[in-house]
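Please annotate the following for my students:
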Amino acid sequence: MILPITLYGDPVLRRVAGNIDLNYPGLVDLIENMFESMYNAEGVGLAAPQVGLPIRVFVVDLSPLAKDEPTLAGFRKAFINAKIVERSGEEELMEEGCLSIPGIHEEVYRKNYIRIQYLDLTGAAHDEEYTGYTARVLQHEYDHLDGVMFTDHCSPLRKRLLKRRLTEISKGITSATYRVKIPKI
């Protein structure tokens, strides 16, 4: 089932999400619905707060990028109760966008190495290291669990320049090609 993507301005996007246990009602269906919603919106990642749920779950599928980066073949994962335990390496500047902020893309700096711990749907614990684009995507989705949007990483000047457009999005004035949930402000 395709879930609506919560737009910028909804308070759920600014809340720190809570951990869950693997008995969370409908968890398997939720994760599959999140993947389906992400594919429908042509994204590579989606966090539970982006579908209105303040829980520490996000999904990522980087396999469509395997043509350019073969190591990404089959990279389709759900991250439950994720915790980034290390960010290091060089700060890299790259353009990012977000399904909750349609039509806005900005260059932001992120570390090029992370170590992340999480559970998968079977309950298995993982402790993994990622670099480059994968590290960037995981940091972007992880930020959603802490109530952080990619625009928060922009310079003060860029934030001022984006303010009007972000206000419009929060009022539903946007041209998203996928189902959205307009914030009740």
